[in-house]
Amino acid sequence: TTWLLAFVAMILLVFVAVWVGYNYFDDDMPTGNPEYRLYTYEIAWQRFLSSPIWGTLFSESAVVFFSKFDVASSTQYLPTHSDPLDIMAHGGVVALGLWLMAIVPVLWRAFKMASLHGADLAWSDEWVHQSYLLMAFTALLVCMFNPIYNVPNLATANWMVLGCVLSSTQICTRMLQQEGRL
């Protein structure tokens, strides 16, 4: 009962803190530029709708000319800020399917390893595996709202983390098979 009450109290405190922050510090907080993002999302969505199967075949740039208002940048060509939407706009459902086929099975196998057999692993192996899994999963969430794949160093880091997840899953599977736990 004590833990439950403490948990409920903590959740209430978080909601109060968010409410206070929103109501009293709203003018000082960044907006995330919803006007900009919605405008560029609409451009990418219209590109996708014009050719939903294969998009533009990646024949156009991933950045778009932003004409809604002037930005404090050296150029008016800006990224869409949604990599899955860019993939759909430029490669259609074919490219989206290929992208998901590269990511989802790796994350699913890693998640199954962590959830079903994590307790069977040594603490250090479990910690490393779950850390890689968390990094890859959060990168997937981040790329939905920030451009990762059109920035080479971020894209490389993203794919390297996914490779680490795959390697970690394979290593943990082999270790458990050798010990007869899998």
Label the overall shape. flat
Poorly predicted sequence stretches spanning 5 or more consecutive residues: none
The level of helicity is 55-70%
Quaternary assembly:
single chain
Describe the strand arrangement of the main beta sheet, using strand numbers: 1-2
Radius of gyration: 21 Å
E-strand count: 2
Instruction: Briefly note the structural class of the backbone.
Output: mainly alpha
% residues in beta strands = under 5%
Layout of helices and strands:
Elements: H1 2-24, H2 34-50, E1 63-65, E2 77-79, H3 83-117, H4 123-142, H5 152-178
Antiparallel strand pairs: 1-2
Task: Provide a quick synopsis of the model.
With 182 residues, the chain is mainly alpha-helical. 67% of the residues lie in helices and 3% in strands.
